Amino acid sequence: MVVPQFKLMTIERHILEQQGRHPEATGRLTNLLYDLALAAKLIARETTRAGIANILGATGDENPHGEIQQKLDVYADQVIFRMNDHTGRVCVMASEEHDELLAIPAHHSPGYYVLIYDPLDGSSNIDVNTSIGTIFAIHRKLTPGDGHGTLADVLQPGSKLVAAAYVIYGSSTMLVYSTGNGVHGFTLDPSVGEFLLSHANIRIPSGGDHYSVNHGYQHAWTEGIARYVRWLQGLDEEKRPPLSQRYVGSLVADFHRTLLRGGVFLYPGTEAKPGGKLRLTYEAQPLAFIAAQAGGYASDGLGDILDIQPSALHQRVPFFVGERELVEKAEWFLREYDHAYLEQYARLRGS
Ligand code: AHM
Ligand code: MG
Predict the structure, then answer these.
(1) How far lies 202's CA from each of 15, 105, 257, 294, in Å?
(2) For residue 133, how far is its CA from the centre of ligand 2 (angstroms)?
(3) Which of 137, 156, 47 is nearest to 90 (CA)?
(4) Which of 95, 97, 145, 173 shows its CA 20 to 30 Å from the CA of 243?
């Protein structure tokens, strides 16, 4: 038996200490974050037992994007909702798995925060035992009064986020969160059921080795993207050292690697799908918030993801994230070669 030599810090203590720095803190956010950590433990328990419990496979229901839901998606979605529908801390929720807002049931009092979540991202990877994740975004209630939250409370720019977090269910389960005071990562010790601080003050390193994009869509790339990827590969006139390529196809996993190792991840728009695939409120905003807190940058090609005012709940957005220099280079290639596409996308975005 080895006694740990370092200071053991549970996520509960860490959240409490972080909030303790704000004298005006009431403990509501602290408690909401605890609840999310508990939901993450319940989901982790099921994802690691998925094979044994024989709960793999589709339920047959389609989500708003026409995708077949997996059973674990449904479980994760319900666990998060039920964990937060009665606590008096949340005024409204929005889940990537639902078309409409999720109201707090009438017999419970609504609270001060808005919770937006992608319950199980990358769920097509479940059956092949590849990392999947959960993403959370928290806003303050914008509309006045103590009542229920509305669409206006959910559709806020990422720069207004109070906190963001993701959980990666990989070779170990990790929860990474930020309340605007750096980015901190915790690894779940399944034997004691605690998230323990394993990655304090994460900073995206510069000079990362990898770029991450789905090359299967190369035929659809705009000229700017095609040239940018060649630049990343060291194939254009500049002859920079080539980056290696990694793509899991599970956003949380690709983002987590980029956060810890540097480099860049991109899911660009195309002429046929100017907004790409990823969702602004459920995926891009919280991950952009975390990237910025770790010294990185996220863009939709036009500018900072955090500055975008969402116009719809399930709005899609091109997503470039990672080391600032690499993301800004993508913006440069788009400005240089993709005028028509950028105009089309800007109209769609409403700017
Ligand atoms: P999902 O929300 O339906 O799980 O889809 C999102 C996933 C992301 O995790 C990942 O980055 C992306 O889809 C991969 O898409 P593609 O297979 O088109 O590369
Ligand atoms: Mg998703």
Answers:
(1) 16, 38, 12, 6
(2) 9
(3) 137
(4) 173
The CATH number assigned to the domain holding 310 equals: 3.40.190.80
* pTM exceeding the 0.85 threshold for the entire prediction: yes
Structural domains of the chain, count? 2
Domain end: 199, 227, 252, which one? 199
Q: What is the pLDDT of residue 4?
A: 60
- Extract the tokens encoding 229: 């990827």
Is the CB–ligand 1 distance for residue 71 below 6 Å? Answer: no
**Ligand 1, from 121, 130, 273, 281: best to mutate by most atoms within 8 Å of Cβ?**
121
Domain end, chosen from 199, 224, 258, is at 199
Angle between helices 324-337 and 223-232 (to 10 degrees): 140
Report every protein residue that has its C-beta within 5 angstroms of ion ligand 2.
Answer: 118, 121
Protein residue whose Cα sits closest to atom 5 of ligand 1: 122
Could you report the per-residue pLDDT of 45-96, keeping only the tens digit for each? 988 876 665 555 556 666 677 666 558 889 999 999 999 999 999 999 999 9
Structural domain boundaries, residue 232: 210-349
